[in-house]
Amino acid sequence: MNAILTLCHFCEAHGPRSLFCTFTTDNDEHITEPSKASVQCTGCASLGPETVLKSTDDDGTIYCSRESVPSADVTSFLRQAAIRSITCEVNWSKDGGIVYFSEAQGHVLSFTFQLCDTRARGLKRWFSILVLMKDKMLLLNITPMLSEHMKNIAAELQKLAVAVFDEEQKICSQRALRLRTGRNDFGQSRSLVQLTGNKEIFKLLHSHFSWILKAGARVFSENLYTSQDLLKKISPIIPILESNSSVIESKAKYIPMRVLESMLSNNVFRVMLFCTLTGVNIQMQTNFRDPEEILISFRSLLPEFDSSAKHKKPNTDPCIISEIEHGNFISKWMQTLPVNCPTLMKKIEIAIKNEHFNEAVLRQHVLSLVLQWQGIAQAVKSTMKSSDNKTDSVKLKQTLGVAQYDETLLKYWMDAFCK
């Protein structure tokens, strides 16, 4: 996984700072050159500028841990991320990390926690673990997994710090001493080694961070598709682009969207479009036209059904479309269209009305919208499977722009088209 994991802390003399960074590299200079960060006190030091921890995976991937990353731009961004994670992006519910975005510099998952320290103000110090990535969607997809492991690392550090804190309190109660003397000059912040009582604490963090990078790469992998392969995966009924063709070739049974809207009337077309996208059973009664032509054309707006998924149509009243005379269709449905239809349906309607789209471009645009929502459905379903915390999927939906009126479509697509 191409990411940077960083441990940050709040220094009472120098503010929020990055202490320790782990990343993957194939550049030997990253292992040999010294860190450029200027360490100003004991609390802001970790490995030292000359020390680098290195692990090599079986596939040749090098995991490198240092006091700072070699890139000055990334170092500057990590400084900003440290300030943000400790001073304002704090998750008070303690249910997981917080994700925030920067298209220019990178996207960050932040998990903030406290460690006991008899020398600190309030007897506690603020720390945070950050994950910096360029790939927003990948970060969102693996946030539940990352948050869980970041939480475990924080709990392990807190356990070590509590043991040291309790021993020091037995010798001298800092709270009582401060109340009696009014002492408020605590000197420099202490190092993580002193807080945890573990001289190998940074080697332990290197092991944890390296494992997270490796696990993240294994949990989610990227598949490279050509446009033709990807569109065929979504809708195999309609041939998309042949290698020597610049337009979409359609089978005889397929009826273009604009033709369907004109033939059925706008009201009936919208009802069929809504029912198709949300899984309502459609029945057609006509003596003047092959109903299969119309049904196939609407089904082409859906991804390919997942054969391993145990899907079923939502338990709703069927929609009956009748042709009462040649070219005159009516719909019989016990329900009515909602005031706010699903986002995908609205975008398809807008695309149909776009006069700059010819039929070939319109078809490709609609299929790209379908692909987008299939990806959203898969991401939400994967999050619901991997995390028992319902708020994770709620936050993901908010990030992906899923509104309340999209829920019917989303549930049907997760059941029918997602593994």
TrEMBL record:
InterPro entries: FLCN/SMCR8_DENN (IPR037521), FLCN_DENN_C_sf (IPR044886), Folliculin (IPR021713), Folliculin/SMCR8_longin (IPR037520). Residues 42-419 form the UDENN FLCN/SMCR8-type domain. GO terms for biological process: negative regulation of transcription by RNA polymerase II; positive regulation of TORC1 signaling. One of its GO terms (molecular function) is GTPase activator activity. Coiled coil: none annotated. PANTHER family: FOLLICULIN, FOLLICULIN FAMILY MEMBER. This is UDENN FLCN/SMCR8-type domain-containing protein.
